[in-house]
Specification:
283 residues; alpha/beta; Chemotaxis Receptor Methyltransferase Cher, domain 1; 2 domains; seven-stranded mixed beta sheet; three-stranded antiparallel beta sheet; 18% strand
Amino acid sequence: MSAMPPSELLSLPPGFGLVAMSDAEFRDYQQFIERLTGIHLAPIKKAMLAGRLAKRLRDCQLDSYGAYFRRIAEGGDAQERQIAIDLITTNETYFFREPKHFDALRSRLLPTRNGQPVRIWSAACASGEECYSLAMVLADVLGEQAAWEVLGSDISSRVLASAQRGLYPMERGHHIPPELLKRFCLRGTGDYMGTLLVESGLRKRVRFKPINLIEPLPEIGLFDAIFLRNVIIYFDAETKRRVVNAVSQRLKPGGWLVVGHSESLIGQPANLLPILPTIYCKQ
């Protein structure tokens, strides 16, 4: 789950009559989302929230945010609740974001594995670009036939379905190193002009699973590295502590926990020691 970009209110057709979101309605959504996902929406996110939900209200033929909230609240429409969560929590990302992390993986971590199987978890993978970036590095350094695996997880089932396809707008791939772009991606033609497709061999090495980080984690094994980037910034201190504790328990000794460059693990588990900026090693 990457940093939320600013968002403008969606334009609505004349006469639709959508009533603006009130402060009280925003607080209802704010508490609801924090309870379900651990994500705290600051007051400045009110316009973003209203914008993301506006088209859905129109699709549901509702004219107020309060009416939609009543529909998705506990005891209401569970399917619609998931749609709302997907709309609110899904964010834009791109391949090889914060490239120094991938450089460190290539030069520092992978050479120490000496032919052992390698597992990496992208714990808030959004639409999957991070997962396939990791897979490209693993395939390049270890070989496409070596024993390695990438797991991508997110709270949004909708973006995971999109991630599974591996089809992206070409602009998302501007930071893919040219040699990896040529080797692992196909350029769209015809109806798919302007897109890139991650090649099938690489897609088969990445699996996706819906996971809510603030709930007990499922049995997913241990990992050599966990990328927990651009998500804990949205948690309050207690939720952040619980999530980092739970996630770090899934690291092998000597494994890396990687967070975003705008994030910090100050005050977090003592067995996570910083070795590079925003990279921590489990002792």
